[in-house]
Amino acid sequence: MQEANLQLLKEVTESVALDSCRWAWLRLGLAYLDTGDSTAAVTAFQSALRSDPNDLHCWECLGDAYSSRGSYTAALKAYSKAIELDPDSMYCMYQVASLKQTVGQYTESIVEYQLILERFPDYVPALKGYAEARLLQAKAWLLQYLDGRVVDACEVILETLARAVGLQPRFSCLWKLAADTCSLVRRLPVEGLLVGVPDRLLQQRSEERHASLLGKDAMLSLASKCYGRALTLQPDCSNLWHDLGVSYYHQALCTEKVAQKTELLNKAVQALKKAISLNPCDHSLWNALGVIAISKEIGKLDLAQHAFLKSIEVEQSNVVAWTNLGTLYLIGKKPSTCTRSI
After folding, report:
1. Among the listed residues 78, 110, 112, the one whose alpha carbon sits nearest the alpha carbon of residue 93
2. pLDDT tens across 80-100, in order?
3. pLDDT digit string (tens) for 128-165?
4. Residue 53 burial (CB < 10 Å; 0-12/13-18/19+)?
5. What's the CA gap between 299 and 126, in Å, rounded?
6. How far apart are CA 183 and CA 247, in angstroms?
7. Please, are residues 288 and 246 in contact by the beta-carbon 8 Å criterion?
8. In angstroms, rounded to a whole number, what is the distance separating the alpha carbons of residues 182 and 200?
9. Fewest Cβ atoms nearer than 10 Å: which of 133, 169, 191, 270?
């Protein structure tokens, strides 16, 4: 059916004058997009635009085609032209913001999302995109040791996500993004660390616009709770189970109480086993399980060895797993085996 449609549209565009078959070029471009042929789609949309350079939908489609094939600069130009034709095009405004985020222009992306939210304050995709761009910017600041900016960014992100989950509480991606933001503080020093968190994230039924100050331990605990909330909405997502396990692991590293540390690490092991049961072909899940199993509180060196070997089995050129396996053999006082693994 799809091939017949393509053939028919090709025949029309080849036999009819360009001015009379703009519709056919547009439909042909859409058909090419459906088949994944982005380059052919670009050519088709360009032909349609030669017939009518002010066709808003053609510019939108051309932007989609450029974006699909990875030509982000060209896509930005196409969407910008569409916005010139229709300044109220929320779709094109969002695509511009999203593409700038994709190419690493976080500051410009944040500005674009803000422009959308000024006009459409309850547009959840823009709230999510704004939070994502802010989080990526915060991660870049973290590498520059700009701790104060990171804390400020976390507060803005969590306030934005509190608004978003107030509108769409059943979007697991929002809860994951909140958890990722809370997890960011694991790299910050404990001393003097306080982050303002909206009560709507702490108390799901709270409608008040108040915030509570949380320290590092409380932030990491909140991260685990947010991952758990995301899992209630998407229970078969292996990546979320992995993130939950790693979150428990980070909590364990920040506590001095042996019993609590052991409990958290055991929870981490169970979460990662669940992740592996859902996706046994992901080498990173096996490696994470091995790292936690090798900890002093868990001390299951056999499980760690099995996990590292499975990780290597899934991905032979797995440098991290090979290194971890060598470290395990050193801990187990097997230097000859360690040398072979390295």
Report:
1. 112
2. 999 999 999 999 999 999 999
3. 999 999 999 999 999 999 999 999 999 999 999 999 99
4. exposed
5. 45
6. 7
7. yes
8. 15
9. 191
